[in-house]
Structures are given as structure tokens and as C-alpha cells.
Amino acid sequence: MKRKLILENGQQFIGTGFGCDETKVCEVVFNTSMAGYQEIISDPSYTYQTVVMTYPLIGNYGTNDEDYESKRPTISGLIVREYNDFPSNFRNEKPLGEVMKEFKITGLAGIDTRKLTKIIRDVGTMRGVITDEDITVEEGLNILKATPEKKDAVSTVTSKEIWQSPHKGNPENVYKVVAIDCGMKLNIVNSLNEAGCDVVIVPFDTPADVIETFAPDGVFISNGPGNPTDVMNVVENLKMLLGKYPVFGICLGHQLISLAYGAKTYKLKFGHRGGNHPVKNLETGLVEITSQNHSYAVDPDSIPGTGLTITHINLLDQTVEGVRNKEDMVFSVQYHPESAPGPEDSKYLFSEFLTMMEGNKNA
Known about the structure:
Blueprint: E1 2-7, E2 12-19, E3 24-31, H1 37-41, E4 49-53, E5 57-58, E6 77-80, E7 82-83, H2 96-102, E8 106-109, H3 113-123, E9 126-132, H4 137-146, H5 153-157, E10 163-165, E11 175-181, H6 186-195, E12 197-203, H7 208-212, E13 218-221, H8 232-239, E14 247-250, H9 252-260, E15 265-281, E16 287-298, E17 309-314, E18 320-325, E19 330-333, H10 348-361
Parallel strand pairs: 3-4, 4-6, 5-7, 6-8, 11-12, 11-13, 13-14, 14-19
Antiparallel strand pairs: 1-2, 1-9, 2-8, 3-9, 10-12, 15-16, 15-17, 17-18, 18-19
């Protein structure tokens, strides 16, 4: 069935639909990863977005029940050059298109994804609508104008109740971590469990005094979708926890920690999304290849005077990739050390969190 993408600048791309056939209004972004499409479509940070995959063949190894990053994906759509509906892999359980239909994810295949990616890089991230082929550009633009941008992404994907994920290691070496769920990837929970943490996951708007009732050894702030300034209630709760417990933040959590210290954030032209972004650790001089997915960044000019120190920078555009406040036992990174999909260069950050919690217990 023929379908099309109409961008807010009036350009259109006609291709073939797969997955769900619903009309979707969304923000159109691109991801440069060569694998990991199942993790991408189930990453809560893509809520209300449609992802253009720059790798030309998608769907060839299918999907399975183990690789989801959330139990109910909230991505709007997926755009690919070529979609393979006949996967061949020993772990395959369902074709990608079947999963997308189940979770109402709209797909578009057979378009020039290189051209579309170049437009996003040149013009910047923009909104679009994936719809039927017979919808005119004018009608598509009217649909976009009539559809307001949603700002409830974090409240849509956060846990609705408190739940716990125990680690499976030595019961005598356990750290209790309260994780504030702003749209947390499941592999972050798995990584904390593997590191030796019992994780209590709480909704994003859980008050600080409730978090303190768990007597945590450390507090974690997760990744998530949208503009960090849309969830300033999380920032206010964080302010009451900083300095009391070791705190570790990833992606949106990094931005929220920075806001809590008085720094500012801004929207990137087209964001960082992929599995091969080089980041320099300013504390060690080492370069890590990282997995990234974010639209916003911390303004480096706003950091002086906040008590934060920049610990990591992106070597592609010099954006801030990590901050730290040693006195308060707080650190955060913009990228994804749990890396799903992506490299594992940054796994050491979970060990750093454990070392910080152990030091605080023995202080």
C-alpha cells in the first residue's frame, strides 16, 4: 500500500507502508546505527517521534522477546530504505512489521532515506505526517497545523506504580538504588542489577520525601523523551536529594541534574542518535565510542558558578557529554553507557556509581 511522508517545509516522500497504517503526526529524526532497530523502536526516549534509519536494510534479523527496551513501545513511526519481511536469524520470533502493527507503529519503506537525512541535517529536526498517498501536501500541512505538539511525553512513559528489580548476585554485597523513571530503558535496570544493585523504580513525579523512605544507597535519574524543562517538578525534587545521596544520571537525567544546579539546556539542530559517537573523558584523556539518543544538550556557558565540572565532551561538535560535583557525590552523562544498541566502552560508569555508594557508606 502506497503511503507518504509530508514534512512541515512542504517536501514529500512517497513509499510503501508496513506495520501500522494509521496516520501519524510526529517529529522526524534520524539514527545512524547499523543494528538494534528493535531496541530503537522500544526506547521510550523516541515517544512521539518517527525515526529515519540511515542503514539501508532493516528487518533482516527479525525481533525477539528479550531485546525490548520497554514493555509497550511509544515511538510513532519508522522510515527505512528497504524493509525485509522475511527475517533469517536463530533468535528471530516475529517479523518487525508484525511487532509494529501490534504496537501501532507506522512504517514507511522504499524512499530515499539519504536525501531525507540530508534535509534534516541541513534544515534541522522538523515535524511531519505519515499518511495515505492520496493526501495532498496542502492537506498534510493543514493536519500538522491542527495538531499541537505534545509535552506530556515523560508522564506517558513513566512507571505508573513503584516496582522493584532485585539483582541476582551475592546477597551480601547489595546496594539499594532508587531509580527515578522518566522513560527508563530496561537495559539500564539490567545493568544496575548486574553491577550488584537492588533497584526500586519510582514514577518521575515521586516526591523526594517518599524516595528517602526507601533509605537508598544511591539515586539514579533515567533517560526519557522531550524537553527537560517540561518536567521541572523532577528538578525541584532533585534539589532536595543532592548532597544527601550519591546520584547518577543518564541522558535526560543528565540534563535534569544540570538544571537542578542552575545550568541551562537548549535544543540541538538535529540531535545525536546513533551508536558511534566519540566522546572524550576529560578526567582520563581517553576517548569512548558511545551510544546516543537526545535532542537537547547542556549549555556549557551556563555551567560556571553552578558547582558542576564538565567531565566529558563530544568530539564531533564539542557539546557537553558529562558533568560532576564531587562534593555532592553527583555525576551524569549525556550518552548511554548501558548501550543497547551500541558499544560497551562506557560500562565503567556503573562501577563508578558503586564505588561512590561504597565510599559514602563507609564515610
